[in-house]
Design a protein that fits this description.
alpha/beta, Rossmann fold, 2 domains, 6-stranded mixed beta sheet, 4-stranded antiparallel beta sheet, 15 helices, 17 strands, binds adenosine-5'-triphosphate
Amino acid sequence: MGVKFEHVTKAYPGHKPAVNELSLEVQTGELLVLIGPSGCGKTTSLRMINRLEEPTSGTIYVDGRDVCSYDPIELRRGIGYAIQQTGLLPHMTIEQNIELVPRLLKWDKKRRHERTRELLSLVDMDYDTFASRYPRQLSGGQQQRIGVLRALATDPPVILMDEPFGALDPISRESLQTELKRLQSRLRKTIVFVTHDIDEAMRLGDRIAILQDGQLHQIGTPQELVQAPRDEFVAKFMGRLFNFPKIQTSVDLIGQFMQEDTSHVHQECSEHGKIVKIDHLPLWCWIDRNGVLRGVSSQPPTGADQWDRNDWTDPKLAAVKDTDASEVVLKRLIEGEAEALPVIGEGEQFIGVVTQRSALKALSNVEMENDE
Ligand SMILES: Nc1ncnc2c1ncn2[C@@H]1O[C@H](COP(=O)(O)OP(=O)(O)OP(=O)(O)O)[C@@H](O)[C@H]1O
């Protein structure tokens, strides 16, 4: 169930086109982020998919079929829609809000109830605690979760999300992004996600489409956009990484983007030490009783003997040293060797991790030599 735009234009009378000859394809099971400056046509593009807006010309296909050939109400029932304002109805309980579309589809009570329970458990919200509350009795982050669950309620194959986490503080925002990523790795929906925030785009997008003045400026995976921005406009969006190889970074940059203490213990043993899982990342580190990093893995260690050396990558290959030149570390991260690398200090002691995200963030704050 993919989505395809073919030469789509939306022009409001008396204005220059909000969307101009847009052609792009969202693959089935892909999360595509639309990003670009305010007014570039992101929301309008999204709202044309479920016919909240009609194109002036061109065609949009959902599952290979022109959206204009669907009855709009029927079309919208098959497409989840989550927005920043959540759209939760204040006089309805959380359960009633989640059940809105299932009710319209005339699901019986038992099926609706089971689905609501299942959905709440997906985001670790206890049914008995939350189902009977009203939206105002939830935090902003919890309300956003319900907004997303409502979009998932009838298990639609396509979901549209318009800055669903836009109003949240950075911490709730990050935890919802992590949750969405986790859900998406299981559910593999076709998602079109609008955001202003490049960090969010990098984190969530399988691909990112950058719009400017209603037109598609560049589309690609986060890595492609970082490595080969079409021009400075794209480079700016990607954290000012234009001409990346020529960047002269300060020697202690690694100190700026290394994260410490973001792990929790996965397993401990008096003889071998401990295995820690780095939070929010597919990264497990084996640290011995003296604090020395012994092994690195991108899979959760399982099996009878988790301390078997063969199951681990040697830190010489899969870690960086705190004395390594920061350009080298950045290059390894940005070229996609790994989403994160452990950092070892003197005596091969584990001291933290560097991540793609933290590297990009640090870089976007660095004054570049060739910036004039
Ligand atoms: N109903 C309307 N009548 C006239 N112009 C409109 C209408 N709706 C949107 N526009 C214009 O179309 C352009 C694109 O708007 P749109 O909301 O799609 O942009 P956006 O990229 O989502 O912006 P933002 O990031 O600020 O939400 C803007 O210039 C906007 O002013």
